[in-house]
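Before surveying the methods themselves, we first show a specimen of the format, giving the amino acid sequence and backbone structure tokens:

:::
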Amino acid sequence: MRLLTAFAFALALAGCSSAQLLQRPPVARPAPMAVSARAVWIGTATLFDSLGSPERLRAGLERSAAAGFTDVVVELKPYGGDVAYPSRVSTRLTTSGGFTPDPDWDVAADAVRTGRELGLRVHLALNVFAEGDHARRSGPVYGLRRTWQTAVLTPDGTVQTSTRLAPSDRTTDVAYTNPVRPDVRNHALALVSEVAGRYRPDGLLLDRLRFEGRTADFSPETRAAFEQWLHVPVTNWPSDILARTGTTFTPGPLYPKWLEWRALSLRSFVEATRQLVRGISPTTALGVLAPADYAAAAEAGLNWGAVAYDPQADYPWATPMYREKSLAAFVDVLVPELPVALPEADTLLLRTVAERVQGATRVVPSLQIRAFPTADAFEAALRATLRTSGAVLVSDYGELARRPAYWAALARAFAVEPASAVR
């Protein structure tokens, strides 16, 4: 574990390619969300609520299979930081929304076993760089892991740790950690190792694999790591990266290199994760959720485009080497998350994702049910997504279960857009 973490962090700091450090032969990829996947997300809250017993979980999985879903994604670690399974690495979440399942019930083991009995591929999801809930002021970053929290550039131009921010200055209730810190990475890799080794799922999805946003992280640790990679000190911190101009932030002279380095930092973590998962459970596919908009993903530190795609023609901040920091070749599945407020599937956005990924990995777009005010709007978006991408991840089961008309819309869409080969 220490070697894997050191490998990940060394790549982020030094900018070395994996080929320079690893002489191991490539490992064959497992089958990801294969062919034309129809996947449904089961959030942790749903596990504790409507599916909070072995009987109810089986009934939910049976209903999913009967509706035409081929894959289920079970969220084991929500952004609050605790986990929904018996863990030696993290604190176990015992109650959510007032619901307390049987403490002797291992929901992850049951989900994998039952799902496979029903012919479903079962993927387990972890919020890797989130360890708390600001709205509830709870989670590890409000306790023993305060040093893990991200440091944010505030509207007045100062740097504050996220738990000290005024609610009006926050952009999210998710308490993100600083993914540059070795101890944060070590903890995330330990969870990955535990889940992959114990449950051997069909897939492992990394959610919130990101920096909080363009204004994070500006901690002393991140500054030191960036300067080491840059090989020169940053004279004006943080204004050489982001400068306060009126009510907005203006990119400084080092902003392009900053984005490149952050993309490298997260890619190195994905490389280490992939190597770890392949060594433990070679048939487990590795996936990443990311913003579908390329620029929004870059602000979060993610470059999901293929190395063959050169963003310099499209984005002024892209450096000549930015495309080399792509993580696409190291994952089996990319789940581009469409904006929650999108009233219908943005087929142009989905086509743009496909053009920039260029087949480097499998693309399974995510649709949020709560984004659609009517079942008809949901059906239209679902059909458009399936026509454009050949696959979809519907989030989440709990929202779907509360809306009978949406189940009917889903059945119609699946019938009209039958499964087809990967495009």
